[in-house]
Amino acid sequence: MSSAVKGVALVPGAAQGFGRAISLCLAADGFDVALIDLPIKQAFLEDVKLEIVHNSVRRSAVILADVSLEKEVKDMVNEVVKQLGSLDAMVANAGVLLPTPLATLIESELHRRLPQYLDISIADLDAILAVNVRGLFLYQYAAIQIIGAGGSSARRHWRAYPLGRAPACTRHQSSPCVG
Predict the structure, then answer these.
(1) Please, what is the average pLDDT of the chain?
(2) Burial (CB count <10 Å: 0-12, 13-18, 19+), residue 53
(3) Which regions form coiled coils (predicted)?
């Protein structure tokens, strides 16, 4: 566990799955973590927050927001700064998947069962695009405005690494948290 605070990281979709794991990893690596998810997942977020505070002695904030809604995203980013003092990193994690995960099928089975995966409603498609495309753009844009305004030359050496859901789903791999 790192004793020095490396900054504040924003993690959308932090209530469970990749987001939860990434949040715990970032806290163990020295970040204070803003845990973001939908209001219906507040209890899960509170559990992640307790685990962060107990295991890594880091600060954590639970912020409820729908990343597909511009006003909620702007309010979310401002709330991160209000509660944790800054915003230094964000993780591209929030996402909606198809009702049945394509990634779980082997190629031969995929060809046999492909028609059932094409049976997706327009409402499902709209929800997927609202979060995975629009939401991703909105929260990255809002976070960059805050991170860029900091102008910290101490972080110029930082690099991006594929820690979010998209790299894991598209390449079937996920990079570990590295210091």
Answers:
(1) 80
(2) middle
(3) none
